[in-house]
Write a structure and sequence with these properties.
The complex is a heterodimer. Chain A is mainly β. Chain A has strands at 9-10, 15-17, 23-25, 27-30, 36-37, 55-58, 63-72, 83-90, 95-100, 115-127, 133-141. Helices cover 0% and strands 44% of the residues of chain A. Chain A starts with 8 loop residues before the first strand and ends with a strand. Chain B is α/β, with parallel strands linked by helices. In chain B, a hairpin with a 1-residue loop joins strand 5 and strand 6 (195-196). The chains are: A mainly beta, B alpha/beta.
Chain lengths: 144, 379
């Protein structure tokens, strides 16, 4: 039995890939307290404890603001450096972590408040043990 | 009826590299020294709380080395707060009236582990895609968040390493004992900006142990001369904040644990004479000045720049050299921080002695998150 599929798979639970192979972000919002989560199947709300039936799925904005970031110069073996590890507050929530690409590596490039967008691309060519490819999110600077 | 608890014996082995010794041997060495200092034997111990993140059933393995008396052993895994968790468990068990004499041990053997913070388990490796999960990156992000809020600079963060490494030159138990001037710290290999290699704690092997005793037993055995009172033993996990669980929060749980500790002890931050806090990375020390209430919010950088936290300042922080110098054997660190405070309260800290120290605070944070704060006092 083969487990290889034609369509790429979502690398993370906050990414969905439709039948046409088109990726999108998905998130959950608590209808009781408004907390948002980069997730698709939480058990309950971590802020107020409301059960799963109070959580609704929504499609978050594809733009956001850099909250914090670091310039990674030493990584694990096989991981290309440097890269920017970034925590981004998507407009309207939730917060997402990822890699900021197509950016310089100066202090100005990681300033809080920098506007970024979310793009989808292959997960750096990485495949699972069955040869499946994955789609991941990447942050890129939002040009003015 | 609950009662006060005391540390009557405490020890940390010299942190370093012990590739030819087992974690149980390291823990046994610390435990035996703590027992000897307390003037009791393994036969006086009624319960053991022990911890290690990389060795299972560490308490049993230690008692196989030093005396299998059949007492209750509970092993804890609570990241960098593991050792402090053991002491927290000892105080609650004693205050509940079940035991009078309890042994606490934290052990870690880390030589060869490399940089911590592996990629999230899943179908494909995520490091470099989901940003970075290494500890320097995670704490660097927390530090940059603080910098945006406070105006702290890369040089401020580096200055913490300068201070703590200097203190360690006076601590024979520290792993790294050399002066590191500011330019040396800032020009060291960049791991994840704003953290260079000299701003990251070192993975070492280590163990620390404490004998915790009820007040009744301390008096009965006539040990008040060496007893250090645990005026507060407090822990907290991370309260929800808007970036959970994407960003690990080391601030919130520290604040909660500190507030509870001050209330338990009935003291104010101004009553604290010295602090050993969790400087796993240089930047976070300044964050914890504020989290522990040593200064107001936004005043952490000023506290550092004014030299208030140097030895000789109003509130010396990490006189031991901190995790940045001692090394950070995860589960041993919580008790090792208490060891340092006890030395000062007893007037045994040698060259780095904080003069007239009566009340000291210890703090650790385990990422995930768990914070522990203890307030110790020598009568």
């Amino acid at each position: 039995m083969t487990t290889t599929t034609e369509l790429p798979r979502a690398a993370f639970p906050f990414i969905v890939v439709d039948d046409m192979g088109r990726p999108a972000l998905t998130a959950q919002r608590c209808t009781k307290c408004g907390a948002t989560y980069p997730d698709s199947e939480r058990m309950a709300c971590g802020k107020c404890g409301a059960r799963a039936d109070a959580l609704e799925a929504f499609s978050p904005a594809m733009e956001g603001t850099l909250h914090s970031a670091v310039i990674v110069r030493r990584g694990f073996p096989g991981v290309e450096v440097p890269f920017i590890s970034a925590v981004v507050d998507l407009d309207g929530g939730p917060t997402l972590k990822g890699t900021l690409r197509h950016s310089g590596f100066e202090l100005d490039d990681i300033q809080q408040g920098r506007r970024v967008k979310v793009v989808f691309d292959d997960a750096l060519g990485r495949q699972d043990k069955n040869g499946n490819s994955y789609i991941a999110h990447h942050f890129e600077p939002l040009s003015a | 009826m609950s009662q006060d608890t005391y540390i009557v014996g405490i020890h940390m082995i010299d942190f370093g590299r012990y590739p030819h010794r087992t974690p149980a041997q390291l823990g046994a060495q610390a435990a035996l020294e703590a027992l000897d200092e307390a003037g009791v034997t393994i036969h006086d111990i009624e319960a053991v709380f022990s911890g290690s993140n990389y060795t299972t059933m560490i308490g049993q393995k230690i008692l196989q080395q030093i005396g299998q008396t059949g007492v209750q052993i509970i092993n804890l895994v609570n990241a960098c707060s593991t050792g402090a968790s053991a002491v927290r468990m000892a105080t609650t068990a004693i205050r509940a009236g079940e035991f009078d004499t309890v042994l606490c041990v934290g052990v870690e053997q880390m030589t060869g582990l490399g940089m911590l913070g592996g990629a999230v388990p899943g179908s494909i490796p995520t490091e470099g895609i989901l940003g970075s999960a290494t500890m320097p990156a995670v704490f660097g992000e927390s530090g940059m968040e603080y910098a945006a809020r406070s105006g702290a600079t890369f040089a401020d963060f580096a200055q913490v390493a300068v201070k703590n490494h200097h203190n360690a030159t006076m601590n024979p138990k520290a792993f790294l004992r050399k002066e590191t001037p500011l330019d040396m710290v800032m020009e060291a290999e960049m791991i994840a900006y704003p953290l260079t290699k000299l701003m990251c704690s070192v993975n070492v092997d280590g163990a620390a142990a404490a004998v915790v005793m009820s007040e009744k037993k301390v008096k009965e055995l006539g040990l008040m001369d060496r007893a250090v009172r645990i005026r507060a033993s407090s822990m907290a996990s991370a309260p929800w904040q808007e970036r959970d669980p994407v960003m690990h929060d080391v601030n919130g749980p520290t604040r909660l644990a500190a507030q509870k500790a001050y209330a338990m002890a009935g003291v104010d931050p101004k009553d604290i004479d010295l602090v050993e806090l969790h400087d796993c990375f240089a930047s976070v020390e300044i964050q914890h000045y504020e989290n522990l209430g040593l200064c107001g919010d936004g005043e952490g950088v000023k506290l550092l720049r004014d030299k208030t936290t140097e030895i000789g300042g109003r509130i010396p922080v990490n006189a031991s050299g901190g995790l940045l110098s001692k090394g950070h054997p995860i589960a041993a660190t919580g008790i090792a921080n208490m060891y340092e405070i006890v030395q000062h309260l007893r007037g045994h800290a040698g060259e780095r002695q904080v003069q007239g120290a009566k009340i000291g605070m210890t703090h650790v944070v385990g990422l995930g998150t768990s914070a522990a704060v203890h307030i110790l006092e020598k009568m």
